[in-house]
């Protein structure tokens, strides 16, 4: 290799090393006033005095919601959410990314939807993505939770990069959508804002709409805290800054799936995944999305209509945890925390 080529390569390597060294994501929570603004709901949206948390309420008149002040082109976005208790059938609490306001006909979306239930029944969590208006090709998955989400806040997060989307619950990855060429425009790729809402999903949220919101139990309140907006804000005059930010997103721990994280994700999915479109052979007439379960490791755990053979609401959930919590409160010395998701045993 000529000395000039070696020198050029050295300069390139040093430049790349400098970029990596300088690039890092700030994962610190922001106040509501710094990162968000009200979307709808009027007095049903109640920030705390210091802006560290926000309460969203749903009553018979309106739900409520807020939206990030900036749109982002990839990043890590998180919120700790404490859900309403008692009879919450039909109630939907959502934390999601979307650009439907800018691209109404071909929008992108990445969703966490927390689905309420009848008294004594568990909340469900649903994840979904849309790209380029692909709403007729929903990619839903639905899960139970290994904890009672009404007792204390739990963290729900999305890591979105140009090549993958990761969904996290309390730091454990529960779903990975890897971008493959066959997805085409179905992978979200345009800048999106971050939203949080509570609303009436009576038409579909609880057992396909069988159970509606019972407003005798209103108002329903969801508390949001630890709001993290660690993404690449869209600004025409910040091209160099955006390139640096994209490197930071791609190399952040939240965006990299090491073997230990992948094993934790498999454990979660085997214990709590109720439904996945990836194994639903009927919904799209036998068509399976190209990004689904490439190694077939999950296939035997699911019926042909996408529901789990292993997990069911009757044998999973957090009902016992509520009783254990009461014992813990009454018994000094008992720990007041519960095991991390990856340490729970299969029933």
Question: How is this structure best described in words?
Answer:
- One of its GO terms (molecular function) is hydrolase activity, hydrolyzing O-glycosyl compounds.
- One of its GO terms (biological process) is cell wall biogenesis.
- Belongs to the glycosyl hydrolase 16 family.
- InterPro entries: Beta-glucanase-like, Beta-glucanase/XTH, ConA-like_dom_sf, XET_C, XTH.
- It is an enzyme of class 2 (transferase).
- It is a single chain.
- With 347 residues, the chain is of the alpha+beta class.
- It has a domain at 32-251: Jelly Rolls.
- It is built from five helices and 16 strands.
- It has helices at residues 3-22, 32-35, 239-251, 259-272, 319-330, and strands spanning 36-40, 45-47, 53-58, 64-68, 72-82, 91-98, 109-115, 124-130, 141-143, 154-160, 164-169, 172-178, 193-200, 220-233, 273-280, 305-307.
- It has a nine-stranded antiparallel beta sheet with strand order 1-4-13-6-7-8-9-15-16. Strands 2-3-14-5-10-11-12 form a seven-stranded antiparallel beta sheet.
- A hairpin with a 2-residue loop joins strand 11 and strand 12 (172-178).
- The longest helix has 20 residues, at 3-22.
- The relative contact order is 0.17.
- Residues 8-22 and 322-347 have low confidence and may be disordered.
């Amino acid at each position: 290799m000529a000395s000039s080529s070696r020198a050029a390569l050295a300069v390139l390597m040093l430049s790349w090393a400098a970029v990596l060294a300088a690039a890092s994501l700030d994962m610190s929570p922001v106040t509501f006033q710094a990162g968000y603004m009200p979307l709808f709901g009027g007095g049903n949206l109640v920030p705390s005095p210091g802006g560290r948390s926000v309460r969203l309420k749903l009553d018979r008149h309106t739900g409520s919601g807020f939206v990030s002040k900036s749109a982002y082109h990839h990043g890590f976005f998180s919120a700790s959410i404490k859900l309403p208790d008692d009879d919450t059938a039909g109630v939907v609490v959502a934390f999601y990314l979307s650009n439907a306001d800018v691209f109404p006909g071909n929008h992108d979306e990445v969703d966490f939807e927390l689905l309420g239930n009848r008294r004594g029944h568990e909340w469900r969590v649903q994840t979904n993505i849309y790209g380029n208006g692909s709403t007729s090709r929903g990619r839903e998955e639905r899960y139970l939770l290994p904890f009672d989400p009404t007792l204390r806040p739990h963290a729900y997060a999305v890591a979105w990069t140009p090549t993958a989307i990761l969904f996290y619950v309390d730091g454990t990855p529960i779903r990975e959508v890897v971008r493959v060429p066959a997805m085409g425009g179905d992978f979200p790729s345009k800048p999106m804002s971050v939203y949080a809402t509570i609303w009436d999903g009576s038409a579909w949220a609880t057992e396909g709409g069988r159970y509606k919101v019972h407003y005798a139990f209103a108002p329903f309140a969801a508390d949001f805290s630890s709001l993290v907006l660690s993404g690449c804000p869209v600004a025409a005059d910040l091209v160099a800054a955006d390139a640096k930010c994209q490197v930071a997103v791609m190399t952040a721990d939240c965006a990299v799936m090491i073997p230990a994280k992948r094993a934790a994700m498999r454990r979660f999915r085997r214990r709590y995944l109720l439904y996945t479109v990836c194994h639903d052979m009927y919904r799209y007439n036998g068509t399976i999305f190209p990004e689904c379960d490439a190694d077939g490791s999950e296939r035997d755990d699911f019926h042909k209509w996408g529901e789990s053979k292993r997990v069911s609401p009757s044998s999973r959930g957090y009902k016992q945890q509520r009783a254990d919590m009461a014992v813990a409160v009454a018994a000094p010395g008992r720990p007041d925390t519960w095991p991390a998701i990856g340490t729970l045993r299969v029933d």
